[in-house]
Amino acid sequence: MKNLVLIGGGYGNMRVLHRLLPNQLPDDVTITLIDRNPYHCLKTEYYALAAGTISDHHIRVSFPEHPKLDIQYGEVEKIDIENKQILFSDREPIPYDDTVIGLGCEDKYHNVPGAKEHTYSIQTIDQSRHAYNKLNNLSAGATVGIVGAGLSGVELASELRESRADLNIILFDRGELILSSFPKRLSLYVQKWFEENDVKIINCANITKVEEGLVYNHDDAIEADVIVWTAGIQPSKVVREMDVEKDAQGRVVLTPHHNLPGDEHVYVVGDCASLPHAPSAQLAEAQAEQIVQSLQKRWKNEPLPEAYPQFKLKGVLGSLGKKAGFGLVADRPLVGRVPRLLKSGLLWMYKHHNG
């Protein structure tokens, strides 16, 4: 009996599970899923958990149940490719015949002194809970600094504004205009929303140091009672320590079939994989579809295609609180209530389909 081990219960490996179960798994293959939590987490909604506008239960989805699925819990310490096993610090190793590594990402602090020690994170559900406790116990008139004005920073700042109208919120953006990689019309809309809702944006920011209660922008100290870091990501520590080829961002270089060059039994999905798009839940799911095709063909001893079609991503949707949003769908910028409704609908469909 072969054992397919899925490391991490994120978006990519959830898609692998739902494509193979209940009836697309060969009779001689079982699946072991390893995760630190007993449920799948909707990472795209961590900003709302931290802001206090949704409950913890709202962003949890149960893992599927099946006789051939064994769910194991633990903190992965190392992936031993040579001996084909997953190592832990507090339990026995788990062997694999094939594995899909989906360990996600961590904050990247860009060597800014004090950033890791003195800021809060929303990269995991535990970190988001910790940020929620700190943010929602602040007294009236306190100041929150959010470093990084990408999608996570923008959504956290807007959701926190709706949750805590009494707080002073400062959003540090390294660009001349917020969300500068998006069409200008969209960026201007988001910037105007923040101005109208009394969120201070510091453009062209360069954070040089962080201390307790202080953010140094171009070496000028700015006071903040809580500082949240949303200024970049990197692959998980386990993947960073793997002795395999990586790209300039530290993501694992793969074959066109998403496995390690020279090892057809190890696949990497999601944030840790070197792909021609920015990491996202949508990308992880699209990649997982192709990984399943590769696995099924190899299990049947069938030849693999030379390459798979390019990923067709549908776009990006972001929220500005519960009533407004922005997005880029089929290269068309959307602003206002429609993209917010679209995002809410997609979230409902995802939970309804996977839950």
Automatic annotation (TrEMBL):
InterPro entries: FAD/NAD-bd_sf, FAD/NAD-binding_dom, NADH-Q_oxidoreductase. GO terms for biological process: aerobic electron transport chain. Its cofactor is FAD. Gene3D superfamilies: 3.50.50.100. Pfam families: Pyr_redox_2. It comes from Bacillus safensis. Residues 3-283 form the FAD/NAD(P)-binding domain. GO terms for molecular function: NAD(P)H dehydrogenase (quinone) activity. Keywords: FAD, Flavoprotein, Oxidoreductase. It comes from the Bacteria. Signal peptide: none annotated. Its EC number is 1.6.99.3. Belongs to the NADH dehydrogenase family. This is NADH dehydrogenase. PANTHER family: 64 KDA MITOCHONDRIAL NADH DEHYDROGENASE (EUROFUNG) (PTHR42913:SF3), APOPTOSIS-INDUCING FACTOR 1 (PTHR42913).
